[in-house]
Every structure is written in C-alpha cells, then in structure tokens.
C-alpha cells in the first residue's frame, strides 16, 4: 500500500459521479441533453430564414444577428436600395456571397408554395431568383415537411427545444428555491428547535401584517401604474416594496427582542416549522395541479413567463419533502453539532454547512420535475391554453397535426422530441438516484 | 377505524378551504365585468344601447343574483381614510377613482360630497330641456351636442383621479355654464361640484392613508359562494343562493343557467373513464410488476422495464393522437369511430343493455386504452420496485428456507407487504387521471368534465372553470380517502384506534 493511497480521502461527490458514469443510459442521456441544450441556445442561428451572412452590392451584412430592421445600401451610382429585414424574400434575392442558416426557415412563417402539408419526401416547390417556380433545390428543402400554411417543421422543432428547455429550467429554478428553503427549515428546526419568546413571536406576526400594508397596500397604485408602463418599472417598484417589507419585518423582529423580555411575554414558545411546512406540502400535494395550472392560465394573459411561474409555484413539494428528510438526518451529524457548539448562527449553519450536503436528494427530484414541467407545458400548448398563439412549441405542432391525420410527420416528430427530452431527464434522474443512494454502494 | 376515517375527513378541511380560497381569488381576478357578460348577451336580440333603463334594471337584478353587492371577503385591511362601505359602489372604474382620490388626499368626507355632487349634476344634465327659443338661438344640433359633451365630461370626472384632468373638465363645464343660457338650470350644480373639488384640495389629510385598519364583514361574496344566503336578512328573496355546500354552483356566463345542471350530467363520464382505467391499470400492471420482480434480470424483466419506461415518458396527448391516427383514420385502419361516445343517431330507447353495450363499445375502446396506458407504466414500475425491496428482506429468506413453494413466498408473503406503496400510489393516480381527462376528453370529444372546462376556458366562462376546479379538488380528496381505507384494510399492523 502506497502512501498516496492512504492519504486519499473518500470524496462522496467524486464517488457519486463515478457511480453515475457506470450507469450507461444515464451517462448517454447527459450527452443528449448537452446536444439539446446546444440546439436550444443556438436556435436563432440554426433555423432562420435570414441568412447568417450576405455580401450585397459590395457590402457585407449579418442579417440573422442584426437588431436593426432596415438596411440602406447605396451603390456606386448613388442609388439607395432599402432592405427591410422582416419582409424581404431572402431566397429570391441574388447576393454576391451568402451563408444560409443550416435550416433556412423561421418557425411559424408561411411558405405559400409548399402550403397544405407537404411531406418530407414528397415534391416541394421553390420560386427561384428569376421568379420561375421550379422543383425544390436540396439546400432549401423542408426536410421534415410542412404544416397547413407551409411552415417548416424542422425550424419549429428547433425553436420548440428552446422553449421547452427554458420552461423546464426556469420553472424548476423557482421550485428549487422554494422547496430547498422550506424543506431545509422544516428538517433542520423540526417542531421544537426554533424557540422564541411569546412576545417576539407575536410582534413579528404583527410586523408581517404591517409590513405588507405599507409595502403593498399603501403602494398599490404605484405598483399598478408601473404594471402599465414597463417591465423595468415593475421590477423597480416591486423591489422597493420588498425592501420596505423586509425592513419593517426586521425592525419588528428587533423590537420583539425587547418586548420578549417583558414579564408574561417572555414565555418560551416553539414554532412548529416542520408541522407547518408538512401541512402546506400535503395541501399542495392533494391539489389537482394540472387543473389549477389550466385555470390560472385561462384567466391570466397568455404568456410563457406566466406558465413558468405557475409551474414553479406548484411543483416544489417533492423537493421540499426530500430536502426535509435529508436535513432531519443531517442535523444530528457530528459536524453540524460541532458547528452549533462553536456558536455559529443557525442561518449560517443551514446555508453554509448543511445545504451543500443536503442538496443531493433534491437533484433527483429536480430532474424528474423538469421532465414533468416540459410535459405540462407541451400539454398546455397542445390544448392552446396559456401559450400565446403565435409561439411555435412542440405541443402546438402536434395539435396542428391533429387537423389532418395523413400529415403524420406533424404528429410523429414533435412528439418524438418531447418523448426524447422527457426520457433523457427521467434517465438522468434515475441515474442520480442510483448514484446517490448509499445502499447501492459496492 | 371509524374514528380514523373521521380524523382523515377532518384533515381534509384545511385543504378544502385552501382550494376554495384559491378558486375564489382566481374568480375575483378574472378579467371583465360579470354583469356585462350576463346582461349584454341576453339583450343581444333587442336594443344594443347598454345604458337603457331596461338594461340597468336587468344589471341590478343580476348583481343581486350573483351577490356582487356584497363585500369581497370576511375582512379587509385598508387605511382609516377609506370607508368600510366603499364596496357598495359597484362600478369598478368609479370605485377605483375614489380609491385613488382617497389615496391622494385622504379626506373621505369631502371626496364623498364631490362624488354626490357629480351624481346630482349628472341627474340635472339628463333632465335638461332646452326650449324652442334656445334651439332657435343656438341651432338645435349644437345645443344637443353640447349637452351630450357636458354629460360625457361628468362621466369622465366620475372615473378620473388625475388633478390636471379633473381641473380641465371642470373648466370646460364652467365655460359651458357661462356661455350658454340653456345650461342655466345646471349652473348651480356645476359650481357646487367645482367647489366640492376645491374643498378636497384645500383640506388634505394624507396622514390618514398611512394608518392601517381592519374591517370585518359578516356577509360577503366568499361566504355567500360557499354557504349561501342563509341568515343574511338583507338579501333579496328572488336572488337566494344556496351555496356550494348545498349544491348551488352559481350561473354560467355562457348559458345563463345554473352550472350544477351541466356538471351533474358531465361528471358521470369523467368518473366512468377514470375508474375503469384505474381498475384496468391495476389488473394489468400488478402481474407484470410481480413477475418482473420475481425473476429479476430475466429477459422478461428487462424487456418489460424498457417498454414501460418508454411508455412512461410518452405524453398522453401524443399517444391519443397516434391512436386516432392509426385506428380511426380512413386512410389507415378505420376500426373505431374517431369521436364521441355513441352513434350520432343515438341509441334507440327500446334496445336491450346488451345491444347498448355493443353499440357503444367501439367508441369506448380507444379512450380507455389512452386513459389506462399512462397509469399502467407508472404502476408496474412502482410494483416492481416495492416487490424487489420486500424480496430482499430477511423474512422472505426465512420463508424460502422453510421450504415454502416460490408461488407461496411471492404471493402470500411478499406481495401483501409490497401492496402498501402500491396503494399509496392510488392517491397519486387519481388526480393524474382527472387532470389527464382534460386532454383526453378534448381529443376524443367525450362529454365529460375535462371537455367542459376546456370549452369554458375557450368561451371565458369563469364560473364553470372555477366550479370544475373546486369539484376536481373534492374528487381528488375523495381519492385520497379511498386510498386510506384500502391502506387500513391491507395493513393490519397500523392501529387506527389510538394515535
């Protein structure tokens, strides 16, 4: 036995990753996810009817990356030509040099020549630069076919990946923040570890009500007006409200410290954090989530942001439950006891010492949560509820396919995309569960 | 056992309260004025003028009927400048402008006088009758136009809170009063109103808007929605509401009829498909899961695992669409009808139940497959996992070493213990099935609750949406209760008498 071996400290993170690598399907899924993420991030470059680069009348442009909508090109004679980016028929222009996006179509844009469901292998038409209608050149083929108005399916799929992955990511970020916080508090404090005085407790409760009054009731019209002006105004006003709220609560908490010293009010009380969180989780768990999301989406203005927030706010229970269980275990471990004995504040222990070690079980739940968020979003957009009508998503593509069953490509390909993404996340979730489970240690 | 069940039912009460509160908050925030929905649609055949006396009366009637003349909730936290009877002003815009004025100046007495003065002015202006002499002097059209403009100015003032805008409109009114003799009857009112506004500006007490207060209301919209009018002596007898707990679900915007009538009919189909598919899923998945676990790592185990995993990740709506595409498509296999639950011609009255089943069955096959498959995959996987856990236990090894047959070990010793997680899953499956029904009922056009809520969303029929949401919440809780009862039967270890 060499000295080096003796000194190797058992590192759970490295060990878990090794376990994860042994799980072939999960490991492969990680690669597929990376490809999906690449497609999602680069979607505007991968599928765009505007060329990535053109050289026109001696000048170079990058239409796909441009924020301007108009190009003014003055040639040697002094004539100015105007190119309006969003309505130009790019494929009929003659450029000196041009680099097309890999899929030279924008999702949802109609192609009149190939309307009414052209199949991937069937005949497609193309109007060339001279205005003649010819058979489709290989470069511009709709490789996965078209929809009723001639929209390119592949372009829709590429941009759909962007939407699905964003929804999964952001909604689960919201859910994770809520779930981790509540779960950690419930597990760490339990029902009898968070002790305070009667006076302080009620002062803080009063502080929350009063803080709410000054932050949101008094300022309701500032917030309402901000809602009508711009999103940055909303954020500023909302932040101001939150600052007022926290400020007042903190002030009352300090005041409570003093009040807690008075006779009668200095009696110690337990705050049953665990019971409160567990009841909340149960209530959320026994709610028909999909119908709730559907109901809210029906009443709110259709927008992807709303959907992300709604999904996030309703799917934190699994994460909270797992984190709670992990923290129940953690709080009795020696290093936490040691930290407590050293006199660290409870919040420092939770955030700095317990959370990094207690986050692992939540990862499994997050992976499955992303999968189900993607499923929920695609179901909503399939039904056409809550998602703006002009946004092309995988679910809305399948819905288009329902209009005409002979257009099998419109049903099969987007469905496959959803299926693959969901499977990938599920496999990663399973892989994580196995890798993080100490029972399966070999 | 009875005591345990009672405890469980009591435990559902907080959940029910939260669900009802959520539904209520959502319905309060639904855009648009319910009265406009109720009244304009009804009058669409007649005159379109929404301000006609008839419409106003009709609106007042619906306002009482829908309980919109009540405060919103049991309590409200406001500032002391706001009166606790502000809810009585029904017009949303007018109430909003009053709130803004209160927020700006804090002197409700002056503000309410200003509001009264405006209403009086409005009254005077509509009673204004210029005589023929004035018509001759100024021209008939011009006179009428000016009066209309003055009325519009007052309407704008009722909704306004911006100081500049109010001053402008008051100045305009004043100039009308000064320049045209036919306004003479209204001159006093106009001066009165403008004085009242000056009074608001002159005596602001902004500090009042910073002092919180809490108002309590015994009878309110939420209370009425849940419990009805019982006990509320002020209520109108013609507009009695019995409340949700007595089965009064309110009125649909779309049909103007009680929602309960529609839902009762529809809930049958949803329950039918949900229950059949849950039972089917259990019947099919248990043997698969047990067999896979008993022969771990066998070919059967591996293939079934892969197939079920794939099934699990397929979106319901996709599978349903593919089913229709393949089996109900005239260009592919046209085995089943594509939509509905019975022949369009209907089933004749005299036919026996056997004939009825024979005629309906083709319509039910595809939906049942679609309903069942998602739960199937989920259930089999859970069964396999929990069986594997049990099979690893010591007492199973003991049973084997006693020489019991494998059959007996698996079905008698292992399965009963593996049942518990499988039962718990029932409570997960039930809400899943109900949620899924929205998609499946829409795809297969089954006249159930799911299709109802979809239709309601498209037509913005908020009362129906809210009621269906509340009802599915209750159904989900019942699902939990059933799971609890099964749990109690399956596990004799748990003692329910004392806890």
Task: Give the arrangement of secondary structure elements.
The complex is a heterodimer of chains A (442) and B (499).
Chain A: H1 3-7, H2 12-22, H3 24-41, H4 43-46, E1 53-56, E2 59-61, E3 70-74, E4 80-84, E5 97-99, E6 125-127, E7 133-135, H5 153-189, E8 195-197, H6 198-217, H7 220-229, H8 231-259, E9 268-270, H9 273-285, H10 289-299, H11 304-314, H12 317-330, H13 334-341, H14 346-358, H15 360-383, H16 394-401, H17 408-436
Antiparallel strand pairs in A: 1-2, 1-5, 3-4, 6-7, 8-9
Helix pairs in contact in A: 2-17, 3-5, 3-17, 5-9, 5-11, 5-12, 5-14, 5-15, 5-17, 6-8, 7-8, 9-12, 10-11, 12-14, 12-15, 13-14, 15-16, 15-17, 16-17
Chain B: H1 2-28, H2 34-43, H3 53-66, E1 75-79, H4 92-105, H5 108-127, H6 132-138, H7 140-159, H8 163-179, H9 184-202, E2 212-216, H10 221-227, H11 259-294, H12 299-313, H13 316-327, H14 353-391, H15 394-401, H16 406-444, H17 449-458, H18 462-490
Antiparallel strand pairs in B: 1-2
């Amino acid at each position: 036995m060499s000295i080096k071996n003796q000194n190797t400290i058992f590192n759970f993170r490295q060990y878990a990753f090794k376990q994860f690598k042994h799980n072939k399907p999960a490991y492969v899924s990680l690669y597929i996810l990376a490809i999906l993420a690449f497609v999602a991030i680069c979607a505007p470059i991968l599928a765009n009817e505007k060329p990535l680069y053109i050289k026109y009348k001696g000048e170079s442009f990058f239409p796909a990356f441009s924020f301007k909508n108009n190009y003014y090109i003055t040639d040697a004679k002094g004539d100015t030509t105007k190119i309006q980016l969003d309505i130009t028929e790019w494929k009929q222009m003659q450029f000196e040099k041009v680099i097309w996006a890999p899929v030279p179509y924008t999702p949802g844009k109609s192609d009149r020549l190939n309307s009414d469901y052209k199949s991937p292998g069937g005949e497609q038409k193309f109007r060339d630069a001279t205005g003649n209608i010819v058979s489709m050149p290989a470069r511009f083929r709709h490789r996965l076919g078209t929809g009723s108005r001639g929209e390119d399916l592949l372009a829709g799929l590429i941009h759909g990946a962007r939407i699905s992955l964003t929804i999964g990511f952001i909604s689960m970020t919201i859910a994770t923040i809520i779930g981790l916080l509540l779960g950690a508090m419930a597990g760490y404090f339990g029902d009898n570890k968070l002790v305070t005085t009667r006076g302080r407790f009620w002062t803080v409760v009063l502080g929350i009500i009063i803080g709410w009054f000054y932050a949101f009731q008094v300022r309701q019209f500032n917030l309402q007006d901000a809602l009508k002006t711009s999103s940055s105004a909303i954020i500023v006003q909302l932040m101001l409200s939150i600052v007022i709220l926290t400020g007042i609560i903190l002030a009352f908490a300090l005041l409570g410290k003093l009040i807690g010293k008075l006779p009668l009010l200095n009696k110690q009380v337990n705050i049953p954090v665990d019971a409160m969180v567990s009841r909340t989780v149960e209530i959320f768990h026994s709610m028909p989530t999909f119908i709730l999301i559907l109901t809210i989406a029906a009443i709110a203005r259709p927008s992807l942001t709303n959907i992300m927030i709604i999904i996030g706010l309703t799917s934190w229970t699994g994460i909270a439950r797992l984190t709670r269980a992990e923290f129940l275990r953690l709080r009795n471990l020696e290093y936490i006891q040691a930290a407590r004995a050293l006199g660290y504040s409870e919040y420092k222990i939770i955030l700095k010492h317990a959370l990094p070690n207690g986050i692992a079980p939540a990862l499994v739940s997050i992976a499955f949560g992303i999968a189900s968020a993607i499923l929920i979003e695609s179901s909503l957009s399939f039904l056409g509820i809550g998602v703006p009508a002009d946004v092309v998503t995988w679910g809305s593509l399948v819905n288009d396919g329902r209009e005409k069953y002979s257009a099998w490509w419109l049903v099969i390909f987007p469905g496959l995309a959803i299926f693959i993404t969901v499977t990938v996340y599920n496999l990663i979730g399973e892989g994580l569960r196995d890798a993080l489970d100490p029972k399966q240690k070999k | 056992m009875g005591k345990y069940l009672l405890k469980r039912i009591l435990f559902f009460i907080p959940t029910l309260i939260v669900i009802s509160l959520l539904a209520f908050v959502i319905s309060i925030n639904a855009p648009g004025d319910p009265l406009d929905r109720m009244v304009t649609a009804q009058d669409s055949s007649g005159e379109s003028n929404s301000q006609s006396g008839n419409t106003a009366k009709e609106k007042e009637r619906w306002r009482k009927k829908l309980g919109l003349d009540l405060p919103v909730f049991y309590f409200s936290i406001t500032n002391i400048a706001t009166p606790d009877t502000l809810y009585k002003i029904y017009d949303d815009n007018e109430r909003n402008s009053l709130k803004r004025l209160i927020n700006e100046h804090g002197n409700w007495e002056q503000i309410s006088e200003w509001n009264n003065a405006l209403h009086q002015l409005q009254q005077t202006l509509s009673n204004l009758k210029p005589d023929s002499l004035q018509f001759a002097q100024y021209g008939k059209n011009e006179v009428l136009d000016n009066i209309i403009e003055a009325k519009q100015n007052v309407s704008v003032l009722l909704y306004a809170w911006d100081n500049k805008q109010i001053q402008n409109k008051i100045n305009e009114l004043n100039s009308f009063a000064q320049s045209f003799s036919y306004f003479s009857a209204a001159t006093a009112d106009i001066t009165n109103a403008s004085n009242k506004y000056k009074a608001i500006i002159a005596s602001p007490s902004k500090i009042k808007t910073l002092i919180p207060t809490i108002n309590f209301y015994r009878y309110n919209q939420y209370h009425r929605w849940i419990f009805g009018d019982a006990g509320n002596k002020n209520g109108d007898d013609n507009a009695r509401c019995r409340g949700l707990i007595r089965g009064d679900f309110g009125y649909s915007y779309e049909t103007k009829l009680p929602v309960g009538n529609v839902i009762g009919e529809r809930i049958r189909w949803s329950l039918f498909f949900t229950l059949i598919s849950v039972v089917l899923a259990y019947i099919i998945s248990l043997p698969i899961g047990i067999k896979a676990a008993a022969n771990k790592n066998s070919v059967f185990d591996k293939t079934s695992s892969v197939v079920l995993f794939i099934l699990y990740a397929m979106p319901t709506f996709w599978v349903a669409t593919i089913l229709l595409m393949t089996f109900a498509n005239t260009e592919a296999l046209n085995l089943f009808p594509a939509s509905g639950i019975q022949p369009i011609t209907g089933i004749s009255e005299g036919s026996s139940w056997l004939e009825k089943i024979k005629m309906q069955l083709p319509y039910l096959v595809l939906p049942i497959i679609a309903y069942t498959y998602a739960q199937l995959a989920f259930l089999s996987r859970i069964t396999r996992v929990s069986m594997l856990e049990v099979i690893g236990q010591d007492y199973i090894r003991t049973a084997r070493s006693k020489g019991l047959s494998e059959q007996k070990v698996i079905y008698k010793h292992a399965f009963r213990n593996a049942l518990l997680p499988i039962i718990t899953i029932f409570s997960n499956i039930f809400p899943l099935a109900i949620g899924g029904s929205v998609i499946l009922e829409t795809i297969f056009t089954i006249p159930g609750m799911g299709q109802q809520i979809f239709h309601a969303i498209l037509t913005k029929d908020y009362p129906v949406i809210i009621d269906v949401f509340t009802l599915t919440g209750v159904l989900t809780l019942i699902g939990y209760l059933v799971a609890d009862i099964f749990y109690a039967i399956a596990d004799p270890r748990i003692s329910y008498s004392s806890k």
